[in-house]
Specification:
By secondary structure, the protein is an all-alpha fold. The chain is built from 13 helices and no strands. It has one domain.
Length: 303
Amino acid sequence: MNSESSTVITSSELGIPTNPDETPLLTEARPEPYLTIRPSRGWVALDLRELWQFRDLLFSLTDRDLKLRYKQTALGVIWVILQPLMAAGVFSFVFGSVAKLPSGGLPYLVFSFAGLLGWNYFSGILGKTSGCLLGNSHLISKVFFPRLILPLSGIGSSLVDFGVAAGMMAALLIGYRISPTPLLLLLPVWMLVLTAIAMGVGLCCAGLAVTYRDIGYILPVFTQLLLYASPVAYSVTAVPERLRWIYYLNPLTPPLEAIRASLLGTPFPSFQPLLISSAFAAVVFMAGLYCFKRMERQFADVI
């Protein structure tokens, strides 16, 4: 009768680490996460590194905005020229021919179109920024990305519109034989002031509109009233001198007058209102960033 022998091989002989209870411990190497999402502590106004990482998304949203706006339209981007041109024609008739307001010896069509050039840039950024969260609610609730990308994409499309309208402005200057002034080099400075004001107000309205949808009804009315309280269709010289200080309480007055002076050589606003308006733009922009960041955590839950 053959006897069978059995051999017992312990885990230590196999090279498997064991615990005191002789139970093998099997560990797996965990890969490092590609991106860790944590709630921000305190207030980080602008994370430039994170925005740079998502720059492709910024360009894609800007391109999408430009394509969708003129999709299935017969004239396409020509509307960027026709809209201010028709508005300038109406202003020329009402304020130039009927009311006979002064235009500094310039054709009223060119005078009002120069004012609309700056105003449309401001109102375009304000409108796109204030409605960017509600218009992209499907992205906010499903995908992570810096929410500040959405309002920033409105600046890019507004700059494209400004460039197209500026080409029409150049054609008007050539047609009426108006020579530009050296102050034209300061045009980007006044556009920066308008951008800061529009972004500051727009960021506040965008954050509030997520919870209070009344912002979508109030803002268009406010913007329409602000159009006639700004030197777009008329000059500051048309305002009585005793009331001019009240008129300059509007922070848009100095940069809009400066844009017209840079393009047409009209009287340049004084340094003090420009300085006050620039300081106001910086404060409003920082306040808008602060409000946007404070309300950012609630966007995905409330929207």
